[in-house]
Amino acid sequence: MIRPAAPEDVPAILTLVRRLADYERALHEVKATEDDLREHLFGPQPRVFAHVAEHEGEVVGFALWFLTFSTWLGRHGIYLEDLYVSPSVRGRGYGKALLAELARIAVERGYGRVEWSVLNWNTPAIGFYKALGAQPQDEWTVYRLTGRALEDLGGGRAGREPGPEDADR
Which UniProt keywords apply (predicted)? Predict the structure, then answer.
């Protein structure tokens, strides 16, 4: 069963986020809390959304997504931030059903695409996505600003030589 996430799903979603991060060798990077997810998924102006997969009444998978916009298409799209299905129920169609639900939403709302990133070494996921007809966008490279670089650019300090005021950073 695939359905929109509800506030009571937040603990299960966070558990699955941690399992995904562990699989991706990045558990140490998970800083999100239940309160964070609850606020952003169900607060007064949610800008991120989730669907869950249930098996025998238990949340066993999730897709967390948000809207993008393509200036070339002139339409919104869906960016799939995370897709995860518990290993114990893989192969039963939950991952495909989650992606199909996002595709259904995109088609229904007139969005132009559903896109996501996948780690280059994650061959099981790559094979799964290709089997669904998804195509890699090899000509694009993802860039990310985070941590000190983000703070420096956001604080107007990008491209300058570090000074004494940076000693505690």
Answer: Acyltransferase, Transferase
